[in-house]
Amino acid sequence: MENRTASALADGDVLEILEIQRDFFATGKTQELDFRRRLLLNLQKMLRENETALLDAVYKDLGKPYQESYLVELYPLYSEIKLALRNLGRWNAPKTVLTPLVLMPAVSRVYRKPMGNVLVFSTWNYPVQLSLLPLVSSIAAGNCTIIKLPENSSHTTALLCKLIDSYFDREYIAAVTDSFDTLHALRKGRFDLVFYTGGPLVAKIISKAAAEKLTPILLELGGKSPCIVDKTANLKLAAKRIVFGKALASGQTCVAPDYLFVDSQIKDKLIGYIKYYSEKFYTDKPHKNRYYPKIINSLHFERLRSYLDDGDIIIGGEVNEAENKISLTLMENIKKGSKLYTEEIFGPILPVFEYNNINTVIRFLSRRPTPLALYLFTTNRALRNKVISTLSFGNGCINDTVMQLANPHLPFGGIGLSGTGRYHGKSGFLSFSTECSIMHSPAHIDNGWLRYPPFNNDVSLMRILTRFFT
């Protein structure tokens, strides 16, 4: 893996990289499980040998402390790589399925095949994890991959470009940063799968470009993920985990709680606990805390700051313009027409709505676009079952937030406006590969006497055979 015949190409030569990767895929090398394992081990090696540099780059881009970045950026990758290495042979093994008696003695099997040449669009809020987690699935499935890295997280992107070029040959894995050239390659070249993480506006542009070539696409988007706190909940635990899930990456997480529905009987108590844990985790001045993450840039900072005038602030509301930081903020009495009602906030602002009857919340959410995640805090089993069975959402937690992402055995993805398709663990392997169905018929026996002409229009025997022997 030391020969880098394509590494001399400039970042903008995405079409040329694609053609080189198409040629390499045609050699069949990626079909070999040993080759895939070596790539996964090389990716693991790249991460382990550059942990400090990666954590430092993420801190420069987003202000995430090293411990948080290790938990949300590196641990999921190590976990996914370990799972793929352990199960690759089993996932890829042909599966024998039933064959109807009328087709005997044929044997029917389903084989897994790589999609081929994959284009991954990553995003800036988790610049290491969301760039390399799809790559784990793509490698495991046997594809060649081009990763379009995000511009906003410039330090992490520069480092990942350097590392990927150092540890991998561009014949099978390449990193690029030019958005326009990548979109041009998508329109003019021929990819076999496109994977996109980000917002719906860009997703529509990429989906349209992919549709021109009938290229399949996986979309990992977001939406307004609700958090519901029932009166039977453990309020201290709920508050602690709501603060964790909302303040993680300063709210710049696609599955962060985006609005809070709380039973009116316990609203004040819950908010008191949220205030307590916010100060315990980040002091009473989180916007001045060096270990409290920042907003990615001034454009997003100003967008979020403008929301602070759209209601009454219960907790927080402090801003640090010099460092693009906004304290964890809870708001109520939201103005009619505010974007806090309709758009994903993607920041540390949490609107609060109280309710007296859970059916009111269910009716409200059932009329909204399907969210990527839902969180419910309750000890009422009937209520839990009602919410899960009635509402549609991509993933979620009971009595926790965000941590569903830490389990590589759980498929991750949305529905409708929150995304299409699933990845993580085995689901990622399945999404980045395709099924090939083959029926093996013996060469020394011909049991097809019913299917060959000449025919006499008498279907009585065929009717009996297909009715009782299929």
Number of domains: 2
Work out the helicity level: 40-55%
Tally of contiguous helical segments: 16
Radius of gyration: 26 Å
Uncertain residue ranges: 1-11
- Name the beta content range: 15-25%
Rounded mean pLDDT score = 94
**First-to-last CA distance:** 50 Å
CATH overall fold name of the largest domain: Aldehyde Dehydrogenase, Chain A, domain 1
Overview of this protein structure:
The chain is of the alpha/beta class. It folds into 2 domains: 14-221 and 422-434, Aldehyde Dehydrogenase, Chain A, domain 1, CATH 3.40.605; 225-413, Aldehyde Dehydrogenase, Chain A, domain 2. The protein contains 16 helices and 18 strands. The protein has helices spanning 14-26, 33-49, 51-62, 66-92, 129-141, 154-167, 179-188, 200-212, 235-247, 267-282, 298-307, 339-342, 358-366, 381-390, 425-431, 460-468; strands at 95-97, 107-114, 117-121, 144-148, 173-176, 193-197, 217-220, 225-229, 257-263, 312-315, 319-320, 325-326, 329-332, 349-355, 373-377, 395-398, 419-420, 433-440. The strands form 4 sheets. Strands 10-13-14-9-8-15-16 form a 7-stranded mixed β-sheet. Strands 5-4-3-6-7-17 form a 6-stranded mixed β-sheet, with helices on both faces. A 3-stranded antiparallel β-sheet has the order 1-2-18. Helix 3 (51-62) packs across helix 4. The radius of gyration is 26 Å and the shape is globular. The two termini are 50 Å apart. Mean pLDDT is 94; it is low at 1-11.
